[in-house]
Amino acid sequence: MPYYRVVGEIPRKRHVQFRRPDGGLYAEELMGEEGFSSDSSLLYHRHLPTAIVKAEAVTQPAGARLEPNLPLSPRHFRTQELAGAGDLVTGRILLAGNGDVRLSYATTDQPSELYRNSMGDECVYVQRGRVRFESTYGAIDAREGDYVVVPTGTIHRWVPDGQVNVLAIEAAGHIRPPRRYLSQYGQFLEHAPYCERDLRAPAEPLLAEGEEVPVLVRTRGGLTRLFYRNHPFDVVGWDGCLYPYAFNIEDFEPVVKKTHAPPPVHQTFEGPGFVVCSFCPRPLDFHPESVPIPYNHHNVDSDEFMFYVGGDYSARRGSGIDVGSVSLHPAGFTHGPQPGAVEAVIDAVSRGVTTTSEMAVMVDTFRPLDLGPGALACEDTDYAWTWAR
């Protein structure tokens, strides 16, 4: 994260004695990235965070297999048709992925068990509903439109308030704001489309009691359930630059040009081998002869995964795309507006339309995306031919 925070009680100096009211020592835990060479935080536990009493292997859930996008074609998936099962961790339905990122959909009203992803950061986008994110750092109340960024190794759980639908982006490394938005010291620059004030992090400790508390742990070797002697939510305070946070898509500030701007102006986060972009309501392009709609384009180095989360998709009218849809446009395929969309938007502008209401979350990957069982189960198989009609 780009700036320093303090939550709860901490000692004046790092790595010095910090005593509990009964005279014993709090247990210090460093959560750090890249081998002590990048962002970190220090957490102070009532009990040893290393004290486990049991470990058991967990069978990998069935249905996590990926298949190549063959024959190569654009795809349309209707996530609205996917039935929820499990929780926001075990109930994730794999849509697409590669060695850098896995993209899953989940819908549930069930709380998850405690979970730690030790393979990489996660970015969970809340499409619908409200959910409380609870962790060793504290809690965040997430709502529709929130991205919740969870650092690698964070013990946490999700507690929905009714039905909630999410897109889970699981990275093989770290998810961060784009470097071009930050100064050399980590502050958001004036041209960045969001800043520190837009980020919501835990504001106070979240303390819980318990013994032999199970935590599901994902590593590159598979799944394990560790049982901790004491509840991991025993942190009385922490400080540093590494912590979970939420950012709402409504707080993204779109860049507007006279003519149509390409997707990099919508970039929100970057990860290893992929970027995340937010398409938000904005003024239409204002050159008197502009074509205020995406031009046909061929991203020769990227697969484009677009999750449509709200608004009106003028450029996609006639394609079957609607709220809850996912389009996948792979490298090797030129894509753009549906037939007649350009003329329709120009006509709308001539009648006084000045804004677009579309909202979407896009993940562009720099290696091909393979298809998961969830995508194949809800595919609109006619989509590839809609430009030829």
Automatic annotation (TrEMBL):
Homogentisate 1,2-dioxygenase N-terminal domain span: 23-248
Entry-linked SUPFAM superfamilies: RmlC-like cupins (SSF51182)
Binding sites annotated in the UniProt record for Fe cation: H297, E304, H335
InterPro entries found in the cross-reference section: HgmA_C (IPR046451), HgmA_N (IPR046452), Homogentis_dOase (IPR005708), RmlC-like_jellyroll (IPR014710), RmlC_Cupin_sf (IPR011051)
Record-annotated active site: H260
Residues given in the record as homogentisate binding sites: Y313, H335
This protein's record includes keyword DNA-binding: no
CC annotations in GO: cytoplasm
Any one GO MF annotation of this record: homogentisate 1,2-dioxygenase activity
Pfam families: HgmA_C (PF04209), HgmA_N (PF20510)
Keyword Hydrolase: no
Domain Homogentisate 1,2-dioxygenase C-terminal: 289-387
GO BP term (any one): L-phenylalanine catabolic process
Cofactor: Fe cation
Keywords, in A-Z order: Dioxygenase, Iron, Metal-binding, Oxidoreductase
Protein family: Belongs to the homogentisate dioxygenase family.
PANTHER family: HOMOGENTISATE 1,2-DIOXYGENASE (PTHR11056:SF0)
Name used for this protein in its record: Homogentisate 1,2-dioxygenase
The organism of origin for this protein: Nonomuraea rhodomycinica
